[in-house]
Amino acid sequence: MSEAPLTHVLIVTDDPRGMQATRDLLMTQGFDVSICAMDEEGWARAVSCPAGAVMIVMDHPAQKAKQLVDHLRQRKDLLIVPVDVSTVFRPMSSSGSSPQEVVQDTARVSGASTLAWAVLAYLNHAMGQYWKQMAEQTRQTLAERSAALHEESMRFQQLSEHIHQVFWVLSADRQELVYVNPAYETVWGRSRASLSAQPMSFLSVVHPDDRDRILSAWSRQCERAWTEEFRISREEGVLRWIRSSVFPVTDEQGVLTHLAVLSEDITDRKRAEEVLEKMEQQYRQASKLEALGTLAGGIAHDFNNILTAILGYTELALATVPKESRAQRNLQEVLTAGHRAKHLIQQILTFSRQGGTERTPVQLEPILRDAFTFLRASLPATIDIRMHLLSEAMVLADPAQMNQVVVNLCSNAECAMREHGGVLEILLEDVLISEQRQDRVSTLPPGPYVRLTVRDTGHGIAPELLDRIFDPFFTTKQTADGSGMGLAVVHGIVTGHGGTIHAESALGRGTTVTVYLPAIPTPQPEKSASRTPSLEGKESILFVDDEEALVRLGQELLSLLGYQVEVRTNSLEALELFRENPDRFDLVITDQTMPLMTGEQLARELLKIRPGLPIILCTGFSHTVTAEKAKALGIRAYLMKPLAIRDLAPIVRHVLDEDPIVLSRNRERENG
What we know:
- With about 675 residues, this protein is of the alpha/beta class.
- It folds into four domains: about 10-140, Response regulator (Rossmann fold, 3-Layer(aba) Sandwich); about 165-265, 2-Layer Sandwich (Beta-Lactamase), CATH 3.30.450; about 355-520, Histidine kinase-like ATPase, C-terminal domain (Heat Shock Protein 90, 2-Layer Sandwich); about 540-670, Response regulator (Rossmann fold, 3-Layer(aba) Sandwich), CATH 3.40.50.
- About 45% of the residues lie in helices and about 20% in strands.
- It has 19 helices and 22 strands.
- Strands 11, 12, 13, 14, 15, 16 and 17 form a seven-stranded mixed beta sheet that branches. It has a five-stranded parallel beta sheet with strand order 2-1-3-4-5, with helices on both faces. A five-stranded antiparallel beta sheet has the order 7-6-10-9-8, with helices on both faces.
- The chain starts with 7 loop residues before the first strand and ends with a helix.
C-alpha cells in the first residue's frame, strides 16, 4: 500500500476527535491521514486535496456532507468514501457507478471500537475496485493509442514507399540506419541492405568535384537543418543530380536523437536549367551577331560608296596618264589596294549575313582561299597551315554558308593547337562514291562528291565524347572560348546541302573532320566570239545616286564609253524627269539606299509608267533587297558596290543587248 499513489486520506467530519482511532489505525497501515472539520476550511481542504482518498463522515444532519460528496465527484483522481456512522456498518451498492468514476460507496457503521476496522476494510475493498477500473481504463487507452499508432505507421509506410523522394532516418551518431524507403534503390542505384550495413556509404558515390563540400556538410553537428545539391556517379556510369536536406530530431530536452534525410533526383531540373542558360547565351550571342550584322551593313554601305569613288576616279586617272610611268604604277597600286578593300568588305558582309540563303553553283576552291586569307591574321604563327586544293568541281550551295563551314572547322582546329602549336592541313579533292561503299558515307547516294578534310595535330578528343561533338551546346572548350554551337551549325549546313560529315580523333594525336558535298556538273563556258564584243554604246542612260561624287563619276565613266548620260541626286526628281518623257531613256541605273525614295520604290514607279524598262539596281548593302527580290520586281541586274568600269561596263552592255526595244531602236539609229 505504501507505494500506491492513493496513500493520502483526508477525513472530513463534524467530530474530529471521534475519528482519532480510525486515523491511528490507518496510519499503522501506511496511510498518510489528515482530519478536518466539516466547515468552510474543511470544505476548501477537501476541494483542493491532492490525488488520494477522501473519507466523508455522514453525520446528522448529512445535507452538507452530501453536497461535498456531489461536488467532489467531478474529481476523477479522488477515491470518495462516504461513511454513515449512524447505523451498523453496511457497504452500499456501487452498481450504478460508471467505469470512469471512482468507487463511491457509503459505509454505515456503529460503535467507535469497530469503526476504524470497518473503515479500513472498506477502504481496501474500494481501492481494489478503483485499481481494477483504472487498469481497465489504462488497457483500453493503450489499445486505442496502439491502434492509432499502428494506423499512423501504416499511413507513413504507404506514403514513404510511394514517394519519389528518398527518405531515411539515422541515429545521431550516424552508426545505425533506422529506416529508408525503396526510392533509395531507384535514385542511388544501390540496395537498401548496403545502406543498412554502412549507413554513410551513400557518400562514396558523390562526384569527386562535390565530395569535399558534402563531407564538410555532414561533419557539422547538424544542430540546424541544411540543404545541399550535388552529383552522384551510379555504378552504370550515369551521372545524376541530387538535392538533399538534413533535419535534426531532438527529444523533449532538446538532445539530438536522430537525423532525418530527404533527397530527391533533380537531374531533369538541372538539365532544363542548363538548356535554358545555354539558350539565353545563344540568344545573347544571336543578339550580338544581329547587332554586328546591322553595324557591318551600315559600315559596308558607306565604305562601299567611298570605295566606288576611289576605284572609279583611279580608273579615270589611269586613262589619262602615260603607260609605264611612275604615276601609272602608283595609281595601279591604289587600284589594287581598293580591290583588296572591296574584297574585305564582301567577306565582312558574308560573315554578318542574316536571313534566308541562296544556293547557286559555286566552286569551293576560291571560298577556301578567301577564308584562309581572312583567318590567317587571327591564327598564331605557331600553327603551320598546309592547303592542298585539288578540286575545281562545283557544288550547289550558299557561298556564305560554305564560308561558315570552313571558318568554323578551322577555328576549332586552331583552338585545339592554340597552346602548343601544330599543323593545320586542309585538303579539297574529288571523290566518287560507289554503291559498294560500306564506310561512313554508305548512306549517301552514289555519285561524284567534293571531299573537304580539315586535320589538326592538337590534343584530340576522348572516344566517349567523339559522338557528341555535333550536338548543340556541347563543347569541350572553356565558356569564354565557345558556346558549343560551331560544329552543330556546320553539321546542319552540311546535311542541309545533302552531304555528310564525320570526325576521327585520338587523345594526343589530333582530330580529322571530313565533309562530303555532292558535286554538280561544271557549266561549259560559252564559246567566245572571234572578236571581243565592244563595251561602248550610244544609248541614253538615267543615272541616280544621292552621292554627288558618285553621280559625277558615273556620268564620266559612262560618257567615256559613248553613252548619253543624265544624272540626278534626288530620286523624286529622277522620277519626275522620267515621267516627262518615258521613252527618252534606254536604261536606268539607280542606287538602293537614298532619302525620300529608295531605289526599289523608284524602280516600282518607273515600271508602272513603262513596263519592261531595263533597270540596274546598285547598293553598298541592303537588309531589304536581295538579287532574287530585285529580279522578281522586274529589275534586270543587281550589282553590289563598289563598282569599277570593268564591273559596270559589261553589265550595262549585256542588259541593253538583251532588251528588244533597245535593239530595235539601235537598228533604227543605224538605218537612219
